[in-house]
Design brief:
alpha+beta
């Protein structure tokens, strides 16, 4: 969870369904422990962004995602040319199952690519860019959706945060 309450979700390979529920909700509140509280996505979470993809095209999608560069933008985007993520060469890995041979298969029958980008400086741009890749079903970046986040600290205390930029909270 970053300073604007953008979040990476999908460790359990259910981010499509989680995003559908979040989108249908009146208010999204994130609850996490202190290890997920950061100023930028990718600062503490280094397992990549989960991307649900069509099994038919996962190899092609993997290659396309690995060709992204930090200044890539979704077609027609008017955003700045500042880098939206840190790594010059992203790495996309097909998530493998733990107790069976082969890849993780989502509840929707799709595969998961974990895409390592380093720190993400513009979560909205990265989410849009990845989503524009043909065969991508959903991206595990939840940008502009949460209105508050609650973090449990190691000492048992609790902290509540709201987005730093007032315009970031789109649900009020």
């Amino acid at each position: 969870v970053d300073a604007e309450l953008n979040a990476i979700k999908g460790g359990g390979a259910a981010h499509l369904r989680e995003k559908l529920v979040a989108n249908a909700s009146k208010k999204l509140v994130l609850i996490a422990d202190y290890r997920k509280d950061s100023t930028a996505l990718g600062e503490k979470w280094n397992k990549g962004v989960p991307v649900e993809v069509s099994p038919l095209a996962w190899r092609t999608i993997k290659r396309q995602l690995e060709r992204l560069v930090p200044t890539s933008r979704a077609q027609g985007s008017l955003q700045s040319m500042d880098p939206s993520f840190e790594l010059a060469h992203p790495v996309a890995e097909l998530r493998q199952a733990v107790r069976k041979a082969g890849p993780v298969v989502t509840d929707n029958g799709n595969f998961i690519l974990d895409v390592s980008l380093g720190k993400i400086h513009d979560a909205v741009a990265v989410e849009q860019l990845i989503k524009m890749t043909p065969g991508v079903i959903e991206v595990g970046i939840f940008s502009g959706m949460a209105s508050e986040a609650w973090f449990g600290n190691e000492d048992g205390s609790i902290v509540c945060r709201v987005p730093q930029s007032p315009e970031q909270d789109q649900r009020k």
